[in-house]
Structure formats: C-alpha cells, structure tokens
Amino acid sequence: MKTAAICIATYQRPEGVIRLLEALVHQAPADGWEIEVRVVNNDAGAIGTDWAEPMARAYPGARFEEDPRRNIAHARNTAIAMGPADAFLFIDDDEVPVTGWAAALLERLDDADAVFGPVMGRVPGETAGWLVRAGVFDKPGPDHDRDIDWRLSRTSSTAVRSEWFGPGNGWFDPEYGTSGGSDVEFFRRIYRDGARFVHERRALVYEDVEADRCNWRAVARRRYRAGAVLGRMDRAGSKLTRTFRLAKRVLAGAAVAVGGVPAFASGDPGQMFQGLCRAIVGIGAWRGHNTSYRVTRYPAKNNRIAEVTPCVSPC
Which helix (H) or strand (E) holds 220? Predict the structure, then answer.
C-alpha cells in the first residue's frame, strides 16, 4: 500500500481549514493508496494555543505541526519533512475539493511526475459581474488532460511524486516564500530537470476568494506581483531573452485588450481587463528583472523582506 500525504499550509484561516478538512474526510484514495493529512500552521501568534483542536475534530487522525516563520515555503517544506510518503498532494487553506479529487490526481501519477487540476473561484455576491465573467478568479487550465508545461503549475490541486523531494533537491525556496512564487519556482526547476506534468480536469477544487481581493485594483496588483516574481526568476537569462519575453507578454495582453473594445463599448469591460492583466504581468516582469527590486506580498520597509535562512532539505 502506497501513502499519499495531503499537505496544507495555513495562516490565520481556521474556518477555511476546518471546511477543507470536512471535505477531505469524504475523499477516497485511488486503488493501492492510503491518505494521510498534514496541516502546518504558519502563524507565530497561534503557538501555545489549542488551534489544532477543532481541526482534529473535523478530520480525526490528521497530523499537525507549527512553523512560526512567516513564509509559506517553510510551511510546505515542514509538511513534507513530517515523514516519508510516496506522493505529496497540495491544496490551499481557502479551497475545497470535489468528491473524487484525491483519487483523480493519484491515478494520473502512474505515468506522470506531477498532476494539476483546475481551480474555480467562488466570490462574494457583491463582486462585479463583469469581473467574474472575465475569469480572473479562476485557474481552469487547458480543456484537455494531456501534457502541460511549468507555466500552468501551482500548489493548489496538485500531486507530486516523492522522488522530486529527495535530499539535496532544494524543495520550495524560502527566497520566494513571502512574495509568492515558491511553488512556480520549484515546478519550473524540476520541469527543466525532466519532470513530466499533466492536467487532470476531474481534480477540481473551489477557491473561496476573500472580499478584499474581489475588485479590479486587487486583481491588477496580484498580476503585477506575479509578473515581478517571474521577472526575478529570469534574471539569470540574457537581457535579449528577458526583453523578448517582456514584449511578448505585453503585446499578447494588448491584443486581447483591443479585442475587448466592442464589449467595453457595450458596457462589459471583462475581456479588455483580462487583456490588461496579461500586459500587467509583462510590466511586472520588467520590474522584476531589476536586481535592486524585490517584490513582497507583505508590507515591508523599502519594499524588501527580512533575510531568510537558505533551505537545506529537509527544512
């Protein structure tokens, strides 16, 4: 019997984790697999409290750990280091899977190194309709279940073979743990090392999007930050290559935005905004190419984050 460890990193979302664990209780593994659930609390303020008690009631047998370093890469690495498994599944603390989610991911690991399922956003009722129709809260993936590349990778609705978390691999890099992107950096790295990625449409999860993220300004800021992180990853490349990628992203976004002009004139700016978001990613990437710039998710003086200890597996 093989073991699949479902890893959940959480920060100040106890209700979300409980909702997730209640859904995981009903997950049946694929044939030949058994499931283990691991929750790592990344909130230093919760240490010494009984934060895990209601979660343990939601999923009897779940394992809990604390990592007070406010850095999601550290939290994910801690979950992996809690013990060996044959596969690691990842899902966020604001997501809920459909029935059959775990089995769908695990079945595809027979011929892949990592499997990714679609994520669909659930937003508050007061969210602007045009923003919802623009699809900016969804990560649907392609309309097939074949191979994909690292650009569609993330740690939500994801399964990875354990071989890619071996000693010395680096796991999730804490240098990207407060800006976002530690998952993309990891998957880009192993993809270039020969890992095969596939998409699995049955492995659907729903993300409950917080109200303060459901406006166009917040969406644009997240796209800009995502672009800056990608730009930072590309710093080692040649200036010509980086400039080409920047121009490609901006021009592709501009083309989509222009295509949305008729709809905008009719009162629906969704497609235009979708294109602008793609262009914003390119602009963010240009800023990320600047070695003196370090994008952060959390406010920090001079737009820098505190030094982090390099990750040496396990960490």
Answer: helix 216-233
Look up residue 112 and give its amino acid. A
Under 8 Å between Cβ of 280 and 162? no
Distance CA(81)–CA(90), nearest Å, equals 14
pLDDT in tens, 157-216: 999 999 999 887 789 999 898 888 999 999 999 999 999 999 999 999 999 999 999 999
Q: What is the distance in angstroms between the CA of the first residue and the CA of the last residue of the chain?
A: 27
- Nearest Cα to 26, choosing from 9, 6, 51? 6
**Type and span of the H or E element at 87:** strand 87-90
Least Cα distance to 207 among 277, 123, 90, 131 occurs for: 123
189: closest CA among 227, 149, 244, 222? 149
pLDDT tens by residue, 199-212: 999 999 999 999 99
Backbone angles phi, psi at 5, to 5 degrees: -95, 115
What is the CA angle 310-45-18, rounded to 5? 100
Tokens of 198: 């596939």
Give the position of tokens 């659907």.
204
Please state at what angle helix 182-192 crosses helix 216-233, rounded to 10 degrees: 40
